[in-house]
Amino acid sequence: MAEGDPEGGRTAIGRALALLGDRWVLLILHRAFALRIRTYAGFRKSLPISESVLAGRLKEMVAHGIFTLTPYHAGRTRYEYRLTGRGIGLWSLLVAIYSWERAWSADSFPVLVHDLCGQETRPYLACGRCGEPMSARDSSMVPGPDATFAGAGPPRQHRRTARADGDRGDGFGSYPDSMEILGDRWSTTVLAAAFLGARRFVDFQTRLGIAPSVLTDRLRRFADLGVFRLESGDYRLTDKGLAFFAVFAFLVDWAQRELAAPPGSGLTITHRPCGAALSPVLLCTACTRPLERTQIHFEPG
């Protein structure tokens, strides 16, 4: 747990949602990984974000141990935002977001290249034990007795204050579909509840303790996005929604490895074909070998 972390009493997944359930945090992380941006000025140039929001998000990410401030000299002492070990552990989540967005969006994207085989790759989720592809359909999820997604955290201020109309010429867009799901804490918790079996309006409301007006808005957004379909009063995940399980799996894995939480508050995900507990990996579509952070790079699409 990062020193001074105010979220110590919350479940690991709840704490992860409180931190990562924000479009600006995710886009800052994306630029840090894909473009290796480290400075305030670099993030400001790359993203359509106001200075106050950027400063606030960077401060928060330092407080939660995602970045560490490192001094360097450029005429006078300045500071870089360098990813910590905890922050580096999010690389697979960011790649899973890229892979899902590219598969389900009509937008153009940079090409991800696997350096080991030299080919373009569209990574897919696999079980770390047996190496076979892993999906929501062949996985079981059992929450601990004290696990909950309710109260994922207070709403952020200025969530949509700056322009959200893409990038500023760096070749990386704003990943709009993913940001509708992960860039809002309630949206992410609604999707998590769907993976755990919630179907009806009352099921979501009971599991999450969410205001009816907020839930209605999120369910409508997901239906418009093609993530849910309404069928005889049930909100069922579409193939597009089920495919987002890969992102959810890496979020859960990172949260439960990196963030402290009370006993009994975890979520157990099992790959049913081999019986292994969640140990997600990304495999290359070209050579089927596991992807490593230092063995991939982006090229213009």
What do these coordinates show?
With 301 residues, the chain is an alpha+beta fold. The chain is 39% helix and 18% strand. The chain contains twelve helices and twelve strands. It has helices at 12-20, 23-34, 40-46, 51-63, 85-88, 91-104, 176-182, 185-195, 201-208, 212-225, 239-243, 245-258; strands at 67-74, 76-83, 111-114, 119-120, 124-127, 139-143, 228-231, 234-237, 267-271, 276-277, 280-283, 296-299. It has a three-stranded antiparallel beta sheet, with no helix packed on it. The longest helix has 14 residues, at 91-104. The relative contact order is 0.21. Residues 1-9 and 157-169 have low confidence and may be disordered.
Going by helix content, strand content and strand pairing, the class is: alpha+beta
Return residue spans where pLDDT drops below 50 for at least 5 consecutive residues: 1-9, 157-169
What is the string of helix and strand elements?
HHHHEEHHEEEEHHHHEEHHEEEE
Counted by DSSP, the helix tally is 12
Largest sheet: 3 strands, antiparallel
Q: What is the straight-line distance between the termini?
A: 38 Å
Provide the gyration radius in Å: 19 Å
Categorize the overall geometry.
globular
Strand content: 15-25%
Please give the order of strands in the largest beta sheet.
4-3-12
- The helix content is 25-40%
How many strand elements? 12
| Mean pLDDT across all amino acids | 87
Write a brief caption for the model:
With 301 residues, the protein is of the alpha+beta class. The protein has 12 helices and 12 strands.
